[in-house]
Write a structure and sequence with these properties.
Elements lengths: L9 H22 L8 E2 L2 H8 L3 H13 L3 E3 L7 E3 L4 H14 L4 H21 L3 H4 L1 H13 L4 H17 L4 H25 L7 H19 L3 H15 L13 H12 L1
Antiparallel strand pairs: 1-3, 2-3
Helix pairs in contact: 1-3, 4-9, 4-12, 5-9, 5-10, 5-11, 7-8, 7-10, 8-9, 10-11
Length: 267
């Protein structure tokens, strides 16, 4: 409707529908694999010609996809756009913004992780190819963490990589997206804590090594194919590992920090 209450011009409706149709077509091509990750779409004139629409209509379709995080539009002489397949970081961004809008604290994320990450650990132990696809990767991360155990920032980063990898390799894509989004939000919180605590919090070396020993126990349980043991070890470890970063666990999830992590990870 117009401000005077009259019906909107038919041309405006057609403009919106055409833009939606183009966005739908490109979105489908991306999600089914016709357009690979990081593929550069053709320059505007060429791509617009393919759809035989006006420049404003085409650009509106691009804005829709850019708002969804599916493309990054490059302005200027080079034109074009780079496509991005949705991943856990995109889900984390949307989830983080939704939680921030509800005034949720990071403690809520920690609790959710205690529910879903042990399920991912159990799923890893149930994978038939775990000795080829999971155990070697987790072992390398564990060994790297041992070497930098005296550096709180570095060992924290590697520990978070261990947890994120555990989720990423669980084999269930719904869990990968859901738990991966939660891991991303918690990792942002824990990384900020590590930088603050590096010069102020004294965590005995023995305690750091004990936490890493639990990573080793978890790797062994996965290697043995013992899903129930992997589940229990993962939960026990989280109950301890979340203690130190809990100094500000009641802090609300910040839209600014969510946006910063997303833009940093998107490059």
């Amino acid at each position: 409707m117009t401000p005077q209450g009259n019906p909107a011009p038919a041309g405006g409706v057609r403009f919106a529908r055409l833009a939606e149709q183009i966005a739908d077509d490109l979105r489908t091509r991306l999600l089914v694999g016709d357009l690979a990750e990081a593929t550069e779409l053709a320059v505007e004139e060429s791509l617009r010609g393919h759809y035989s629409v006006s420049k404003p209509t085409f650009r509106e379709a691009m804005r829709v996809l850019e708002a969804e995080g599916l493309i990054t539009v490059r302005r200027g002489a080079i034109g074009g756009a780079v496509v991005h397949r949705p991943d856990a970081e995109h889900v984390a961004y949307s989830l983080g913004m939704a939680l921030a809008g509800k005034g949720v604290s990071i403690a809520d994320v920690a609790q959710a992780l205690r529910e879903v990450e042990p399920a991912c650990a159990a799923a890893c132990a149930g994978r038939a190819d775990r000795m080829q696809e999971i155990v070697p990767i987790l072992t390398r991360l564990h060994e790297r963490a041992i070497k930098v155990v005296d550096n709180l920032v570095e060992v924290t980063a590697l520990s978070r990589m261990f947890h994120e990898t555990l989720v990423d390799l669980c084999g269930n894509q719904s869990l990968v997206m859901l738990a991966g989004a939660l891991e991303s939000l918690w990792s942002s919180h824990e990384a900020a804590w590590a930088h603050r605590a590096a010069d102020t919090v004294d965590i005995p070396r023995a305690e750091r090594l004990k936490a890493l020993d639990e990573h080793r126990e978890l790797i062994d349980a996965i290697a043995d194919g013992d899903s129930e043991a992997a589940r229990k070890i993962a939960l026990r470890h989280l109950l301890v590992a979340q203690i130190y970063p809990s100094d500000q666990i009641d802090v609300l999830i910040s839209p600014t920090s969510v946006r910063k992590r997303f833009t940093d990870s998107s490059g």
